[in-house]
Amino acid sequence: MSRVWNFSAGPAALPLAVLERARDELTDWQGSGASVMEQSHRGKRFITMAAQAEADLRALLDIPADHAVLFLQGGATQQFAQIPMNLAGEGDSADYIDSGHWSAKAISEATPYVKVNVAASAKAAGYRQLPPRESWQLDPRAAYVHYTPNETIHGVEFPDVPEVGEVPLVADMSSNILSAPLDVRRFGLVYAGAQKNIGPSGLVLLIIRRDLLQRAGRPMARIFRYADHAAADSMLNTPNTWGWYLAGLTFQWLLAKGGLAAMGAANRAKADLLYASIDGSGGYYRNPVDPAARSRMNVPFTLHDSALDAPFLQESEAAGLLALKGHKAVGGMRASLYNAVPLEAVEALVAFMRDFATRHG
Ligand code: PMP
């Protein structure tokens, strides 16, 4: 069997051990004679697995009892709308920090449901740095403050959780959840699409402070209401059973690897290696982001001559390095270094980059 080093931004690499286990039990899960996908979500087997996945996630992130965990569908994009629907009442406003492509999307999708106050923006700086905390125009009456701790396309990451006072902090952690320890107590709501650090697409994870479930929000169908999902243990309707199962296997894999402290150290080492290689290339490769705001998960870089982009992509793929093409919004290349990408993959990438620079000097 041949596996490539996969730098995809998402859907992204999954741990090989998780895929192998899923393969081994695909047709006969837990001796049931059927796959996990072919069984009722109301059955004892599935409910036990689902509860274990939640317990493992709680252990990994040390999630306090006053936060609920939801396994929902619709991706992070649906949450862009569902957050204001649930957390803001008629006439309320919410503060948004605009730090890149995905926070801008969150802002535009929230606009039909809440008065958006863009409290700070790095747009004028080309999203190459974070909006300095001192510049944020926060409103103490805001329903919540929304930000994007890691911008998947611009490769910008907040090094710390910002202090925002009493207003609930809402974070789109789609591309950096589970990449290092996190103090969940600092957040009103954390959400993440699964397809980077959790499992396959089609699943979105929410960690929400239970008192926020009681917010009146606005009249809406139950399927959009967090409180109803929480009361039904995320089984208000048929959940993404396959995604939930694979997420559970990923949580077990993370625990076996030593948890998030170990992941955090591994991710730091991977990112440091790649940034050092870019910065040490004498301008052959460049990363445009302010070093204080560089993402550990998504590393965009350009070649000194864009005519080399096509050969770089062709030769890297031939060398078994997959999905290095950058997002069209920023161009160039992007290497995503999520949990399932091992240090060996980054070592192979920097060796390739060095060799490419020598051959195409
Ligand atoms: N937020 C961030 C930070 C993302 O990286 C992405 C997807 N790449 C999204 C939101 C959108 O996620 P989805 O496609 O699951 O709606």
TrEMBL record:
Record bears the keyword Transferase: yes
Annotated localization: Cytoplasm
Catalysis performed (reactions): O-phospho-L-serine + 2-oxoglutarate = 3-phosphooxypyruvate + L-glutamate; 4-(phosphooxy)-L-threonine + 2-oxoglutarate = (R)-3-hydroxy-2-oxo-4-phosphooxybutanoate + L-glutamate
Gene: serC
Gene Ontology BP term (one): pyridoxine biosynthetic process
Annotated HAMAP family: SerC_aminotrans_5 (MF_00160)
Described function: Catalyzes the reversible conversion of 3-phosphohydroxypyruvate to phosphoserine and of 3-hydroxy-2-oxo-4-phosphonooxybutanoate to phosphohydroxythreonine.
Pfam families: Aminotran_5 (PF00266)
Keywords of this entry: Amino-acid biosynthesis, Aminotransferase, Cytoplasm, Pyridoxal phosphate, Pyridoxine biosynthesis, Serine biosynthesis, Transferase
Chain positions recorded as pyridoxal 5'-phosphate binding sites: A76, T77, W102, T152, D172, Q195, N237, T238
Details of cofactor binding: Binds 1 pyridoxal phosphate per subunit.
InterPro entries: Aminotrans_V_dom, Pser_aminoTfrase, PyrdxlP-dep_Trfase, PyrdxlP-dep_Trfase_major, PyrdxlP-dep_Trfase_small
Protein name as catalogued: Phosphoserine aminotransferase
List of residues binding L-glutamate: R42
Pathway: Cofactor biosynthesis; pyridoxine 5'-phosphate biosynthesis; pyridoxine 5'-phosphate from D-erythrose 4-phosphate: step 3/5; Amino-acid biosynthesis; L-serine biosynthesis; L-serine from 3-phospho-D-glycerate: step 2/3
GO molecular function: O-phospho-L-serine:2-oxoglutarate aminotransferase activity; pyridoxal phosphate binding
Lineage: Bacteria, Pseudomonadati, Pseudomonadota, Gammaproteobacteria, Lysobacterales
Alphabetized PANTHER family for the sequence: PHOSPHOSERINE AMINOTRANSFERASE
Cofactor: pyridoxal 5'-phosphate
Record-listed E.C. numbers: 2.6.1.52
Domain Aminotransferase class V as annotated: residue spans: 4-349
Subunit structure: Homodimer.
Enzyme class: transferase
Residues bearing the modification N6-(pyridoxal phosphate)lysine: K196
Gene Ontology annotations for the cellular component aspect, listed alphabetically: cytoplasm
Keyword Cytoplasm among UniProt keywords: yes
